[in-house]
Amino acid sequence: MADLLVVGSVALDSVETPFGKVREALGGSATYFSYSASFFTQVRLVATVGEDFPESHLRLLENRGVDIGGLQTSKGRTFRWTGEYGYDLNEAKTLDTQLNVFADFRPVLGDGLGRVPYLFLANIDPELQLDVLRQMKERPRLVALDTMNFWIQGKRDALRRVLAEVDVLTINDGEARQLASEPNLIRAARAISAMGPRTVIVKRGEYGALLMTEGTLFFVPAFPLDSVYDPTGAGDTFAGGFMGYLAAQDRIDAVAMRRAIVYGSVMASFTVEDFSLKRLTRLTPAEIAERYTAFHDLIRVEP
Ligand code: AMP
């Protein structure tokens, strides 16, 4: 079992879906990722929050065994994101992004963090992602990255620089098209792979996830659910299951990647069943194992 380092956002999210809303609930790419990955391996979190960040949220991560030694409290307000979804839950509409303490955050990798073998650069300013990658004392065995439209539009050059150095990119379908300037998803994935990442994982919300490694394709559907309340964090939770499984196994071969995609989909399928991290905080390892089996039953053709 290997350790897993993540840098990304820790946030207070205000979200409205057709099924309800929350104000200033716990969110952030690194939060969902760490919570999800903590079911598989030791996670070390690097991020910042403001002085207004509730202690209880920190306890939640600590209680899952997440190492929050690299989570700095800075002067100012915590990162805030406001978004909404219509009946099509696949696309979030961002209403407001307040970087707050992330605007001048400089991550510092203390305490042996520079030698952690699995690294996830969760959705955050690509310059911060690059900064963390530069501080690694040893090249990690696997570096994966996630991003979104906000950074594709706002920091394309920095994003291209960090993309050139990572092994895996996880990205939404719409954002893959935007990044590659290419409407066809397969061609978009291929074009993105040419920018650096050997493996591109395109997240397609309720339509599943597509993995492309050097031209080879693998696809898993999303788990069919009859109660989806809030898709926020599904992508990061997916990445947490994916990277958490690989780090736990300490394997990055093709079979491990395929299993990891299924674990990612399993974890994401829980997140969307409630707002914020609520469903994840009730989750048990037995439920993860059960849904992993159910997933196999769903896609198996031969008895
Ligand atoms: P997803 O897994 O793609 O649904 O990501 C949802 C999380 O991304 C939310 O909890 C937000 O706090 C976070 N988020 C939204 N916009 C940004 C941004 N520009 N940078 C970093 N994190 C963000």
Please tell me about this protein's structure.
A hairpin with a 2-residue loop joins β12 and β13. The chain is globular. The mean pLDDT is 96. It has a domain at 4-9 and 32-44 and 111-299: UDP-N-acetylmuramoyl-L-alanine:D-glutamate ligase. α9 packs across α11. It is built from 11 helices and 13 strands. It has 303 residues and is α/β, with parallel strands linked by helices. It binds adenosine monophosphate (AMP). Residues 9, 11, 13, 27-29, 32, 81, 97, 123-124, 148, 150, 232-236 line the site of adenosine monophosphate. Residues 9, 11, 13, 27-29, 32, 81, 97, 123-124, 148, 150, 232-236 line the site of adenosine monophosphate (AMP).
> If you average the pLDDT, what whole number results?
96
- The named CATH superfamily of the domain at 4-9 and 32-44 and 111-299: Ribokinase
| Quantity of strands, as a count | 13
Provide the CATH topology of the domain at 4-9 and 32-44 and 111-299: UDP-N-acetylmuramoyl-L-alanine:D-glutamate ligase
CATH class of the domain at 4-9 and 32-44 and 111-299: Alpha Beta
The class by helix and strand makeup works out as alpha/beta
Distance from N terminus to C terminus (CA atoms, Å) equals: 33 Å
Which ligands, by name, code or SMILES, are bound? adenosine monophosphate
Gross CATH architecture of the domain at 4-9 and 32-44 and 111-299: 3-Layer(aba) Sandwich
Radius of gyration: 18 Å
Characterize the largest beta sheet: strand count, sense, and whether it forms a barrel: 9 strands, mixed
pLDDT below 50 for ≥5 consecutive residues: which ranges? none
Global morphology = globular
| Strand proportion | 15-25%
The amount of helix comes to 25-40%
Strand order of the largest sheet: 5-4-1-8-9-10-11-12-13
* Number of continuous helical runs: 11
- Please provide the ordered H/E string of secondary-structure elements: EEEHEHEEEEHEHHEHHEEEHHHH
